[in-house]
Task: inverse folding
């Protein structure tokens, strides 16, 4: 039996592989920063919360544990996000990987299974074999290709043996449902369709004019448990490989499914018809990605066994489990006066002027690392009906996400309304409909969420939604609100000088 370090073992494929290794009797150590992972998924062995870019954490692990093999899954993986933030992606996915690899070399841990992706390929005719030319269409794909090249050239020369497993579209959940797909925000097709269909909202199809049989993109959806098996076979292969070797395998089912076919498979399992919206193409998407996995069959003895029906059935079951976990951990935030100063919001037309109150980024980052989902609710009443467009608000929120990015504190869901046209207005004051929509999409219990704001209307909103407790911050209009208002009956309100002050005691359970 081996002792393995699973870096990124609180994420989707990492946790599934970690549980599969544990089930076979291997000893598992998980390292995960929880930037995107979840502690609920990290129960496969000893869990260390830390960053793979932190050399002192790596030294502590490698000197205290006799690790035989490292499995490296930790990465930011959202293609569209990587297009917006290429520098942050490279920093996280390439430069921090280098720190991990250097630590392995120094501690003489020389066997690695690396989580790679079919996004290293560009527009190619299906099926795609290992001989196909690389041509990533996104910074995410470039990051993975760059790490593969480092492993093949530099680190193999330094004695490391490694296998890169290029997954096509990882999907489904393990049969025991101890873990599954849980991203916030969720960008992947299958969980997004499940969430949308269950909550009766429209499913967005990104592009319906592609040169495919029904105009939507084709992907090779491969079951995450099949991928976990491939990692175990890769470990076996490493045990018989000589020092300084590199090998890469394309892992898929060798058959393609369109976006529309996925939607209809989900509808069938849920027995609910899907409402569909045709949207524009998404940046960085390839038309078709289908694997040729013959090399994995011949050299690893691996083939994908589980069909799309099992993928969708297990994904639907895991979604229920995920909702149970997620619903206890939601913070609903007001924006102006709570996260950022609230002068006349001149930044609506000039988002560059938006700035955060001191400490807000760090505070939200701590909440995210503790597993909270962040929901932001805005109804732009101060600006007035019809004077701004949703697209203006979206620009403000893109700017907000930029400001929060260095803290790994991204908002998971924006619920917003501009009251225009008035007759179609979704929210009305107080904006309960917006929160109900967020609760329905993300699957949380409104009563269990924590509400934070600086105005009387924010506290009223919490009460009208059925919340039990709310936090008043004394930033923005908070001090004035505290002086003037009667707190709504039946709502426990605590006041803090800032969001930063509030998060500390809250996380300590006070
Ligand atoms: N997609 C979609 N609507 C969604 C999410 C995804 O139409 O809400 C499409 C996306 O454009 C791509 C396919 O579904 O063609 C698979 O996307 P996903 O993000 O799941 O995986 P990717 O192939 O990008 O890694």
Result:
């Amino acid at each position: 039996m081996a002792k393995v370090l699973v870096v990124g073992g609180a994420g989707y494929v990492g946790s599934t592989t970690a549980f599969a290794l544990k089930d076979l009797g291997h000893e598992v150590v998980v390292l995960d920063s929880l930037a995107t992972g979840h502690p609920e998924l990290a129960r496969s062995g000893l869990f260390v919360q830390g960053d793979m870019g932190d050399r002192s954490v790596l030294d502590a692990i490698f000197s205290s544990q006799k690790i035989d093999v490292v499995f490296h899954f930790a990465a930011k993986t959202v293609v569209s996000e990587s297009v917006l933030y290429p520098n942050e992606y490279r920093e996280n996915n390439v430069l921090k990987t280098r720190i991990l690899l250097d630590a392995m070399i120094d501690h003489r841990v020389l066997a690695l299974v690396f989580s790679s992706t079919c996004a290293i390929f560009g527009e190619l005719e299906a099926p795609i074999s290992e001989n196909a030319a690389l041509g990533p269409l996104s910074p995410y794909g470039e990051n993975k290709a760059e790490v593969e090249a480092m492993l093949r050239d530099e680190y193999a020369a330094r004695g490391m043996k490694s296998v890169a497993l290029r997954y096509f579209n990882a999907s489904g959940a393990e049969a025991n449902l101890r873990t599954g797909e849980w991203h916030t925000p969720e960008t992947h097709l299958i969980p997004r369709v499940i969430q949308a269909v269950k909550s009766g909202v429209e499913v967005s199809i990104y592009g319906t004019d592609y040169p495919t049989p029904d105009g939507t993109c084709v992907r090779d959806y491969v079951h995450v448990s099949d991928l976990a098996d491939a990692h175990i076979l890769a470990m076996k292969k490493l045990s018989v490989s000589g020092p300084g070797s590199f090998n890469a395998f394309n892992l898929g089912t060798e058959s393609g499914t369109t976006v529309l076919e996925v939607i209809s498979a989900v509808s069938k399992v849920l027995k609910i018809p899907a409402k569909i919206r045709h949207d524009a193409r998404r940046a960085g998407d390839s038309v078709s990605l289908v694997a040729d996995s013959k090399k994995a069959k011949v050299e690893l003895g691996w083939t994908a066994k589980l069909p799309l029906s099992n993928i969708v059935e297990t994904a639907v079951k895991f979604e229920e489990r995920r909702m149970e976990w997620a619903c206890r951990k939601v913070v609903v935030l007001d924006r102006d006066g709570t996260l950022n100063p609230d002068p006349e919001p001149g930044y609506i037309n000039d988002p560059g002027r938006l700035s955060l109150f001191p400490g807000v980024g760090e505070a939200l980052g701590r909440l995210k690392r503790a597993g909270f989902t962040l929901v932001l609710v805005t109804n732009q009443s101060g600006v007035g009906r019809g004077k701004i467009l949703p697209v203006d608000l979206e620009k403000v929120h893109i700017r907000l996400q930029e400001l929060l990015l260095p803290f790994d504190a991204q908002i998971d869901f924006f619920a917003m309304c501009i009251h225009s046209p008035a007759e179609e207005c979704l929210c009305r004051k107080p904006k309960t409909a917006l929160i109900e929509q967020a609760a329905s999409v993300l699957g949380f219990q409104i009563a269990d969420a924590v509400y934070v704001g600086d105005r009387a209307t924010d506290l009223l909103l919490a009460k009208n939604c059925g919340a039990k407790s709310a936090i008043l911050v004394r930033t923005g209009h908070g001090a004035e609100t505290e002086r003037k208002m009667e707190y709504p009956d039946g709502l426990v309100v605590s006041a803090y000088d800032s969001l930063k002050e509030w998060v500390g005691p809250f996380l300590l359970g006070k």
Remarks:
- The domain at 3-324 is CATH 3.40.50.720 (Rossmann fold).
- DSSP finds 16 helices and 20 strands in the chain.
- The chain has two domains: 3-324, 327-507.
- The longest strand covers residues 111-117.
